[in-house]
Amino acid sequence: MTEAFDRAVDVLSMALGLGCVWLGWRAVLRPRRPPEPIQGPVWAVRAWGLGYVLLGISLAVQSVTLMAGGEPGWPADVIRWVAGPLVIGSILAAFLSRRWERRRARAMKEGRQA
Question: What's the chain look like in SS3?
């Protein structure tokens, strides 16, 4: 019973990894029309997309490795040291960019320069 549950979780993780690759690849190829979760400057959208591609690849490789009975090694390191900071940093940059644009638009509407 536990073995079947572990395999189901591994298959789900692999599917999520491939979904992350697909979503990230869309953002990298079309940064002016990114997926809904990320909106902001082109460089932030591309960084987010690259982070998601790396996250998805490493998650899928880690899942396949676990299904084959191996130990996760470098995929966990890629997630921790490369993909995570790229995704989190780009989300933070996009948030700050949107906030800056709203503040600038409000200042222009009120007639002052920002």
Answer: CHHHHHHHHHHHHHHHHHHHHHHHHHHHHCCCCCCCCCCCCHHHHHHHHHHHHHHHHHHHHHHHHHHCCCCCCHHHHHHHHHHHHHHHHHHHHHHHHHHHHHHHHHHHHCCCCC
State if pTM tops 0.90.
no
Cα torsion angle, 28, 49, 55, 12, sign:
negative
Q: How far is Cα 39 from Cα 24, in angstroms, rounded to an integer?
A: 13
The alpha carbon of 46 is separated from its chain's Cα centroid by a whole number of angstroms, namely 10
pLDDT in tens, 34-78: 666 677 788 888 888 888 888 888 888 888 888 888 887 777 777
Tokens linked to 70? 């191996």
Cα–Cα distance, 31 to 13 (Å, whole number): 26
Contact 12, 59 (CB under 8 A): no
Confirm if 49 and 88 have CB atoms less than 8 A apart. Answer: no
